[in-house]
Fold:
Amino acid sequence: MTNTLWPRALLAALLIGVIALALAACGDDDKSSSNADVVSAINIIDKAGLHDIDDSIATKQTIPATARTTALHLQTVTLLTEWPKDLKDPAKKLAETFGDLATALDGTKPDLTKAGTAAHNAHEVSHDFSHAVWDALQKEAGVQTAPEAAD
Structure:
């Protein structure tokens, strides 16, 4: 995707997630609704472009124009999602990490060192969280996963 399209894709994904959350709030409070909310939220986080933000700041010394908005949107999605019980604390940590990224990117001329550290942390913490979420969802669904290869 080009740089002008990925913010639109993120906005569309965010909108889908918000609609899914709103529909779930209007429906039954059953497990399938909460699983759909979690799937929507983790897909938004996974596809938000955190790798590209991290890479752009680290290698090009350039902060993408939409990076702060992305961080704020991800923090919002993370805080509004009803995560499974064992993922609530990691979700709070992830939301704080997104908040730290947004803060580091605030202002007209953010400090690139602080922004780079915050972007890298958000990128890495989101990967760890994503793995935990998908592991929990796969376990609940009864999906057998292959053991990870040794490094």
User: Anything to note?
Assistant: The mean pLDDT is 86. The chain is about 70% helix and 0% strand. Residues 112-141 form the longest helix (30 residues).
